[in-house]
Amino acid sequence: MNWRTMWSRRAEHWRFRYLPGLVDLLVTASTFQARKRLSGISRRVLVDSSVLGHSITHETAWISTGTKKWGDMDIEGGYAARICVHGPDCDTEVYRNVTYMPGIAHLARKGMLELCTSADEQARQPVGRFRGYGLMDHGLFRDIRMRSVDGFAFSMMGPGGLTRSDPKEEQQIRLAGSDDVLYSALLEKLGPRNNLDAWHIRTAERHDMFCLLTMDFRLKRLVDANAQKEPFRSLRTRVMTPMDFGRLLGLTPIPPAFFSYHDASWFVRPDLHWPENTRKPRSSYRKRGQD
C-alpha cells in the first residue's frame, strides 16, 4: 500500500468521525439570529409534504467499477454508495430552499420550533418519499417527530371489512363533504383543482400555525397574487417557502452536501450527484420485470 492510498483512507476515516460534529456546530452558529427573533412570533409550523420530499438530500446509488472477468464470464463490478441529490453548482429554486432546511431542522430539534403535520398531509403519501427509498439515503428531517394537529385519516371500510383501495378518492370524498366556511372561501379563490391546498391553508389557520411551509412554488405565487383579497387578507397564518421563512428568521443557508457523512456507515461519494439535480424517481426502485 503506497502513501497516497494510506493518506486517502486516513482522511476518509476522519471525515466519518469528525465531519458531522463540525457541520453540526456550523448549523448551530447559523441559527444565532433566529433564536432571538423566534421570541416574537408563534413557533408552530405546518409542514407541507412537498418540503419533506425535498428534504432528502442524499440517495443510494450504484457506482460501477467496470467489467471484470470471472472465469469465462464478464461480471459488472461496483458498489452501493451514498451520493448527493444536488451538485455543487446547482442554483435551482428547489436547491436554494433546501439550503435553509438545516437551520429549520436544528431549531425544531432544540425545541425552538414545533414542526407539525396533518391528517391530509400524511394521506396517500409513500413513506419513502419522506425517508428515502434506499438504505443509505439521508434526510434533513429524519429524526424529527411531527405531531398531527388534527389526528389521522383512517381508511373507509367497505363490504366484508375491506378498506377502499384508493386513498386519493377517500381524501376527495372528505373534502367534498366539508362545510367549513374558510375552506369554501379559499376554494373560491384558488379554484377546485387546488382544493387540497385550500384545505391545508385552512388547517394551518384553524390550528394557529405561524405558517404553512411549502415548496409548491405555484401555490405560493397564487397566494401572493391574492394577498390583498379576502380571505387571504384576514389570515393570521402565512404561506411561506423554507427560503422565505429562513430569511425572516435570519438563518444562514447551509449546502446540503455538508451532510454527506451524517449517520453514514457505508461508502460515501460526496463528489457525485444525480445529473438532473433532483431525486431519483420512485419508479426506478421497482424490480426488474415489475410494471
UniProtKB/TrEMBL annotation:
Q: Which UniProt keywords apply?
A: Plasmid
Q: In terms of domain of life, where is this protein from?
A: Bacteria
UniProt-recorded name of the protein: Uncharacterized protein
Native species: Rhizobium leguminosarum
- Lineage, highest ranks first: Bacteria, Pseudomonadati, Pseudomonadota, Alphaproteobacteria, Hyphomicrobiales
